[in-house]
Write a structure and sequence with these properties.
The chain is mostly beta strands. The chain is built from two helices and ten strands.
Length: 180
């Protein structure tokens, strides 16, 4: 039965030839999840902390790449205690007790002329919408940095009053350092 070792060898070589995307460890402490929206008194800036993410990414194996991430709504910070309380607690906004997380799950990652784009499902307040998010990855030694700047319509997720004094568009800025 000399064919059995040959079959096993071919199987092992085939498995090695199939490149597996890299599992990255996200530095939650250094990650930035920031947002900006127009408010009644000008721009409102804020952030979420404690990003939790599973990142499997290889520029040479985008089909095997995926990103799943979440932030706790209770970590929202705008620099104004009353506003933070309203955003965290009111049903009109996030209601962290009822909807504790904002999550995103990639469906597809593709190369673009300027970086990458991820087609994903974004879930806020149990409302899931498809989004397309452009991002860049800058490798550095045994790590790298994912960056992204994108816009969502807050009304699509039931955030705030439709047509209210807060602008519809919310710009999200992400900086996510990773290591192997």
């Amino acid at each position: 039965m000399k064919t059995k070792p040959i079959i096993i060898t071919v199987f092992i070589l085939s498995a090695l030839a199939f490149k597996v995307a890299t599992n990255w460890v996200v530095d939650s402490q250094k990650s930035k999840v920031q947002f900006e929206a127009s408010g009644p008194m000008g721009k409102v800036n804020g952030s979420f902390s404690g990003l939790k993410s599973t990142v499997v990414f290889d520029p040479n194996n985008l089909a095997g790449s995926s990103i799943k991430a979440s932030v706790e709504v209770s970590t929202i910070e705008t620099g104004i205690a009353l506003r933070n309380s309203d955003l965290r607690n009111k049903e009109e906004w996030f209601n962290a007790a009822k909807y504790p997380q904002v999550t995103i799950q990639s469906k597809k990652i593709e190369k673009t002329t300027t970086g990458y784009k991820m087609t994903a499902d974004l879930t806020i307040k149990n409302v899931t919408r498809p989004v397309v998010i452009g991002f860049n990855f800058t490798p550095s030694g045994n790590g790298g940095l994912f960056t992204s700047l994108f816009t969502i319509n807050r009304e699509d997720f039931g955030l705030g009053k439709a047509g209210g004094v807060v602008g519809k568009e919310v710009t999200v800025n992400l900086e996510v350092p990773v290591s192997k």
